[in-house]
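W.,

You were right to be curious about this one. When I first looked at the sequence I had no strong expectations either way, so I just let the prediction run and decided to look at it fresh. Below is the sequence, 397 residues in total, followed by the output.
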Amino acid sequence: MPLAAALVLACGFLILFIGGGARLAIGLTLKPMVEDFSWARHDIGAAVALFQVVSAVCTFYAGRMADRMSLRLVLGAGLLIAAAGIGAMSLVQSPWHALVLYGLIFAIGNGAASTAAVGVMVTRAFPERAGLANSLALAGMSVGQLVMIAVLAVVLLQIGWRSVFVWLGVAHLVLLPLILWAAPGRRAHAAQHAAAPPSGMSLREAARTRQFWMLLAIYAICGLDDFFVTTHVVAFAQDSGVDGFFAGNLLAMMGLTGLAGVIWAGVASDRWGPAWPTLVSFTLRLAVFALVLLERSTISIAIFALVFGFTFLVTAPVTVLFIRDSFGVKHLGAIGGLITMVHHAFGGFGAWLGAALYDRGGSYVPAFAVMLTATLAALALTLAYRAAPLKSRSSGP
């Protein structure tokens, strides 16, 4: 592996390691924050929902910028903004502070330095093994979830939830110099395009196909599931009588199995295409949603966390393959950014819906029933998906 490509992969991994762990930390701090301030859970749920919408929009625009300009600038600016937002969360006193700092400022930075721009960067560096390379970069999210959440769970117990946000801000700043040194700049982007001009559909052309709208629906439901679970699984476990320390480490456990899931997805998608791992992912989700609706023991919740964690990032590395096979790579960032935007926007709705249904009835059971039904629809959509060959639909370079 050439040194430049290895550095690109390391950059992608570390960006998602820090950003993925930081994004999920709100689930760890949800219960102590609402208890400290006597807030309702939907106060935090609203901040998470706003975060999902804002970060989703910024992911789309970051993807478009990644197609056209320096990845060093896009990713570096994202890290700096994210550091400011998540670090300042240690100072919140009112729900609107969380809306501004987490839901707006951190969301802008996290959306810029996220999977869309990283996916473009890694796919350019590894065009022949895009599935596996993106899986290795996206493994940063799982490792970050495993390592950072486990460490932050100890920080939370020892010195409080405010310190969690302080250390997350510091982590973003520590990473910034490496990204500014190693990520490709404008000159590298121009040289690569001059050597091998990419081909494929524009976003407008892709939107005229059936596959495009099916992908949007599949990723919308995936996001709905993902962020409902990551926002509420710790509180759900605590409500069900699970030990507090064990419940606090559920997100870390999910990160461990997520690491296995994302690597498997990359290998499987390079070999069999992106639809197969997506089908497996939704089938497993159906099984564990049904399990916790029927039984909410500690063992059942642990099984749920481990299995759902395995599926959590399965669809992330295959996104670039869905796009490449159906629409080409010329506008990979824009199309991938839009798909990610829809995924995150519906994720915000899932986080808010879980809180709203809980506050209304004092139980997460109705929310789990909604997720099971939506996942069944996603499974049907994935079965129906058929990607036509790019050469029959490409508009050319």
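Here's what jumped out at me. Residues 2 and 17 are 22 Å apart (CA to CA). And, maybe more interesting for your project: The chain has 17 helices and no strands.

Coffee later to discuss?

I.
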